[in-house]
Write a structure and sequence with these properties.
Layout: H1 5-8, H2 41-71, H3 78-94, H4 97-105, H5 111-145, H6 149-152, H7 155-179, E1 180-184, E2 191-195, H8 203-239, H9 242-276, H10 284-303, H11 308-315, H12 317-329, H13 335-343
Antiparallel strand pairs: 1-2
Helix pairs in contact: 2-3, 2-4, 2-12, 3-5, 3-7, 5-7, 5-8, 5-9, 8-9, 9-10, 9-11
Keywords: Cell membrane, Chemotaxis, Disulfide bond, G-protein coupled receptor, Glycoprotein, Membrane, Phosphoprotein, Receptor, Transducer, Transmembrane, Transmembrane helix
Pfam family, one: 7tm_1
Transmembrane segments: 45-70, 82-103, 126-148, 160-179, 211-229, 250-267, 299-315
């Protein structure tokens, strides 16, 4: 299907998720532009409150993960390295949540530079997260299916891989630096932080800027995760190795939570893109539904940044043990308390169990 310039001239030049569309080329029977009512004040302040809570939980939880993993250098595995970078990505994103909270409750008041910076951190957090989880799935696949632990434990290679993940995540998010701007939306009369691309000649690659990151930064890593974990879980069920099974519980929980938080948002983005290129019918009601879906699922995606430390704390026995070791080393609790806790809980001794798991 060929993409005409006039069909896509406003693909990104809208402020969906914040209340307004203003299309002059609305193709349905309605002659007037489609205007979506502003989000109610109660909902806006509720979302802002949720963002602040998520920010606090994320800062505390991910800081603890960073402390525990960095403290236990001797028993740190490749998976720990990946999870450490995952926690760092969530920490950086958490620092932007107060800005998004104020934006939700009011309008963008922080200027153009902060608009670009916070948008990039949001995108980098998402793409680095899914790529790190994909590499964790590959690492677990090699360690369990092919028992190549000696290869996967070469940490100097992991450092280069993590650097490559960060670099790729930034490059795939670079359009935010170029096109994301703070500007006053004509239809809503408020300052928004959004893509502001002008001119009909660039319409075709506006679609590419949205679709390509989704393909290479989400769909392909998701396929890798599903394939690796399908084979890995199948092998674990065959061997019936309880220690290895325990070691997989946290990782599988992390992946499932990631999908539950981010998959709905990416489906909403896909539906919005298909509507804008004309593959699905563009109607005012559909725009309202997609706008609501984008706003709601984005909240779920943002909340993901504080969930992984909760998973480690409730499922990861070794994470709790190493956290207690950290507290003992800092003199916060006594060694007797730690030993008493360990006696009351079974500690995993699997060779592939990481510091975090």
């Amino acid at each position: 299907m060929s993409l005409q310039s006039d069909e896509l001239s406003n693909l990104f030049n809208t402020s969906y998720g914040y209340g307004y569309y203003d299309y002059t080329d609305f193709p349905s029977s309605a002659a007037a532009p489609c205007r979506i009512d502003s989000t109610s004040a109660i909902f806006k302040y509720f979302v802002a409150f949720v963002y602040v809570v998520v920010c606090l939980l994320s800062l505390v939880g991910n800081s603890l993960v960073v402390l525990v993993v960095t403290y236990n250098k001797g028993s740190r595995s490749v998976t720990d390295m990946y999870l450490l970078h995952l926690a760092i990505a969530d920490l950086l994103f958490a620092l932007t949540l107060p800005f998004w909270a104020i934006y939700r409750a009011h309008e963008w008041i922080f200027g153009n530079v902060m608009c670009k910076a916070t948008s990039v951190l949001k995108e980098v957090n998402f793409y680095s997260g899914v790529l790190l989880l994909a590499f964790i799935s590959i690492d677990r696949y090699l360690a369990i299916v092919y028992a190549t632990r000696a290869v996967t434990e070469k940490r100097h290679w992991v450092k280069f891989l993590c650097f490559g993940i960060w670099l790729f995540s930034f490059l795939i998010s670079f359009p935010m630096v170029v096109f994301r701007n703070a500007f006053r939306d004509n239809s809503s009369s408020v300052v928004v932080c959004y893509e502001n691309i002008q001119g009909g000649k660039t319409s075709e690659w506006r679609v590419i800027l949205r679709i390509l990151p989704q393909v290479f930064g989400f769909i392909i890593p998701l396929i890798i995760m599903l394939l690796c974990y399908s084979v890995t879980v199948h092998r674990l069920l065959q061997t019936k190795n309880s220690q290895k099974t325990k070691a997989m519980k946290v990782i599988i929980a992390v992946v499932l939570v990631f999908l539950l938080c981010w998959l709905p948002y990416n489906i909403s983005i896909l539906a919005d893109t298909l509507m804008r290129v004309g593959i699905i019918a563009d109607t005012c009601d559909r725009r309202k539904s997609i706008d609501l879906a984008l706003s709601s699922t984005e909240i779920l995606g943002f909340a993901h940044s504080c969930i992984n430390p909760i998973i480690y704390a409730f499922i990861g026995q070794k994470f709790r043990n190493n956290f207690l070791k950290f507290l003992v080393a800092r003199g916060i609790i006594s060694k007797t308390v730690m030993l008493r806790y360990r006696k009351g809980s079974a500690s995993s001794t699997s060779g592939i169990t990481s510091t975090t798991l």
